[in-house]
Inverse folding.
């Protein structure tokens, strides 16, 4: 079987994306599992190579079919305006937001037309994206609109290790994502929780290195402290989360909860659960990043295409200093390649 072709979008040129891509390029495991190429600005990528004092040539290509990557050659498909090369490091610039947008749209269309097996995205800056006139909270929502689907979600995924993480790693799916805390309550519905549990189950099955011998174990995080203390601290657990768990179990999903989030995260870290459904962004992100921020991978579930990403943002405080850790980018590329060998069934939309 030929290696899957993966497009790696450059992200915002002011952020750490370009240097993490160059840093990941030197890892032989990347080239052993896929045929990567960059979508972005060739001048910016050459600047990142110089920053890291790498012996790598950036070769401009006109199509994915022209890409011949190696440890010493980065094929780069130009996308967007040449003005991206003029963006200053660590600055919110509409040109940077537009450059990130153009790269994502280009790569998504290549995936939709099956010219590539999937895409891996370097981080964009949400303020710069909005300044460029593209009013999306992030990649997940942008790709949902581009692909014409509604039931999508982010899963942060930590690959398995030899220590505490379980047999297939640990995934945390988010019922709500980029929104203010005060807005979370109106978006939590039984159907949404069940859909997230379904997507988590599919994801962990696909990410298993072998055919899973048992259904993935899904835990539902409570929204309120102490899981609401039987309604004393809030009734969302009684009225929304518990009915969602019951419905999921009736559908054959190995789902349980809702459990107090503080203890559930500890239980998951020891391998008791394969995936969790978090109720809001930081409930899932903080816990997983404490377990392994630089190995974590962002996977968008519910799309008809494969998309993974690093688990952090543009990091303007570290950008273009040559110190960005490429580990998450390596894991994102490897994870996308693994998913590409198993097809797109993981990414079909679903619901109760």
């Amino acid at each position: 079987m030929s290696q899957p072709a993966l497009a790696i979008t450059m992200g915002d040129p002011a952020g750490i994306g370009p240097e993490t891509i160059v840093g990941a390029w030197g890892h032989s495991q990347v080239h052993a599992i896929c045929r990567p190429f960059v979508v972005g600005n060739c001048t910016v990528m050459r600047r990142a190579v110089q920053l890291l004092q790498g012996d790598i040539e950036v070769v401009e290509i006109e199509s994915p079919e022209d890409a011949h990557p190696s440890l010493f050659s980065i094929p780069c498909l130009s996308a967007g305006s040449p003005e991206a090369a003029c963006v200053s490091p660590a600055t919110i610039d509409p040109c940077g937001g537009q450059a990130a947008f153009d790269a994502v749209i280009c790569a998504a269309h290549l995936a939709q037309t099956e010219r590539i097996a999937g895409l891996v995205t370097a981080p964009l800056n949400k303020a710069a994206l909005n300044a460029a006139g593209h009013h999306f909270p992030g990649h997940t929502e942008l790709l949902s609109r581009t692909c014409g689907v509604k039931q999508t979600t982010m899963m942060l995924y930590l690959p398995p290790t030899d220590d505490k993480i379980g047999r297939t790693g640990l995934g945390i799916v988010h019922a709500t994502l980029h929104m203010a805390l005060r807005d979370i309550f109106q978006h939590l519905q039984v159907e949404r929780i069940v859909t997230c549990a379904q997507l988590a189950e599919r994801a962990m099955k696909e990410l298993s290195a072998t055919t899973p011998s048992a259904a993935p174990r899904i835990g539902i995080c409570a929204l309120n402290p102490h899981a609401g203390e039987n309604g004393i601290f809030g009734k969302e657990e009684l009225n929304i989360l518990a009915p969602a768990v019951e419905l999921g179990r009736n559908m054959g999903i190995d789902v349980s909860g809702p459990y107090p989030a503080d203890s559930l995260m500890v239980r998951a870290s020891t391998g008791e659960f394969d995936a969790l459904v978090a109720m809001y962004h930081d409930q899932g992100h903080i816990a997983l990043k404490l377990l392994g921020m630089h190995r974590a991978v962002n996977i968008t579930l519910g799309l008809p295409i494969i998309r993974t990403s690093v688990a952090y943002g543009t990091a303007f405080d570290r950008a273009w200093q040559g110190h960005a850790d490429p580990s998450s980018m390596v894991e994102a590329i490897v994870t996308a390649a693994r998913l590409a060998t198993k097809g797109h069934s993981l990414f079909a939309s679903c619901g109760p």
Notes: The chain has a mean pLDDT of 92.
